[in-house]
Amino acid sequence: MDFAEAQKEALECCRCGTLCHSRTRAVFGEGPLNAELFVVGEAPGFNEDREGKPFRGASGMLLDRLLLSIGLEREKVYLTTLVKCKPPEGRAPKPAEINACRPYLLAQLAAVDPKVIVALGDLASKSLTGRKESVSRIRGRVIPLDGRYVFPTLSLVRALYTPAERALLVSDFSRLPKLIAAERPSTYGTLNVSRIPAAEREPIQPGLW
Ligand code: SF4
C-alpha cells in the first residue's frame, strides 16, 4: 500500500473491527513527506478525534514546546500515532488493533523515510523498537534500525501530570538535534513495528554520546 492509498483508506477503515466504532474520524497524521523527524504517539484522544489532527490539546501544546525548545516547528515534523482512531473511554489500544493498523504506519514510514523516529510512551516504544523492555528502562537510548534511529521516550500525557517525567522528556528532546544532524546508521536490522522479539537483545549504541 502506498502513502496516498493508505491515507485514503484509513479515513473509511474498519480493519481492527473496534476502533472505527469509537472514533468520530480517523486521524491519519500530518507533516511534510521529507521530514527528518517522525513522532509516533499511542492513539488519538478526545481533541484529536474532534479536530482530525494529531497531537492537539494540552499534549499537543507540550509537544509544540518541546519541539520549539530544539528549534523545530511542528510543521517541519511528521506526526502520527500507532492507531489512527480513538479508543473508547481513553483506554490504550490493544495489540490486535495496533497490528491491524500497522500497514498505515508502515506506509507513512516508507513515504517519509525519516532519519529519526521518536516513539512516545510504552506502547510506541515497544512497537517501534521491537523490544519488550518498558520505556522507562530504554528511554533516551538510540536504537539504529533499518537505516534510521529509533528514540524511545516518555509519553506526553504522563509528562503533563508529572513534573519529574516532564524534565526527563525535556532532557531527551534536547539530544535530538545532534541525532538529526548525524549520519544515518548503517545497520541491517528491520523495523518490526508491533512485533515483540522472542529474546531481549542488548541495544546497539551508535556512539553519538
Ligand atoms: S484504528 Fe486503524 S485499523 Fe482500526 S479502524 Fe482505525 S484506521 Fe482502521
Provide a compact summary of the structure.
This protein is an alpha/beta fold and 209 residues long. Helix content is 39%, strand content 11%. It has a single domain, classed as Uracil-DNA Glycosylase, subunit E.
Indicate the topology:
Elements: H1 3-11, E1 37-41, H2 46-51, H3 57-69, E2 78-81, H4 95-112, E3 116-120, H5 122-129, H6 135-138, E4 143-145, E5 148-153, H7 156-161, H8 163-173, H9 176-181
Parallel strand pairs: 1-2, 1-3, 3-5
Antiparallel strand pairs: 4-5
Helix pairs in contact: 1-4
Task: Give an overview in words.
By secondary structure, the chain is of the alpha/beta class. The chain has a single domain (3-181), classed as Uracil-DNA glycosylase-like domain (Uracil-DNA Glycosylase, subunit E). The protein contains 9 helices and 5 strands, in the order αβααβαβααββααα. It has helices at residues 3-11, 46-51, 57-69, 95-112, 122-129, 135-138, 156-161, 163-173, 176-181, and strands at residues 37-41, 78-81, 116-120, 143-145, 148-153. Strands 2-1-3-5-4 form a 5-stranded mixed beta sheet. Residues 194-209 have low confidence and may be disordered. The structure holds iron/sulfur cluster (SF4). Residues 10, 13-16, 19-20, 26, 83-85, 97, 100-101 line the site of iron/sulfur cluster.
